[in-house]
Amino acid sequence: MVRFDPAGQAWCDRxxxxxxxxxxxxxxxxxxxxxxxxxxxxxxxxxMETWAAFVLTQxxxxxxxxxxxxxxxxxxxxxxxxxxxGEVKRLIEVxxxxx
Length: 99
Hints:
Layout: E1 3-4, E2 10-11, H1 15-29, E3 35-36, E4 42-44, H2 48-57, H3 60-77, H4 85-92
Antiparallel strand pairs: 1-2, 3-4
Helix pairs in contact: 1-2, 1-3
């Protein structure tokens, strides 16, 4: 299964792709604001293009870190986290093994 984020990037069902897709959906909810860590260091500059460049160039740990910071920013600003539970249900469906 392939999903397209708001920037038009296609993402597959692998966990690392799912994490990137999720971060982009959270970015969309935040209107792609500048994302900083608790120390004030910029993780992602403002704008959809910079968020897309970040998810396309970073490894798993920076994506996870940025996702946690983006979720914290959602809570601080009163922005609802995007509802992706329907997507998760499709991700964990597996076909039975043939006999």
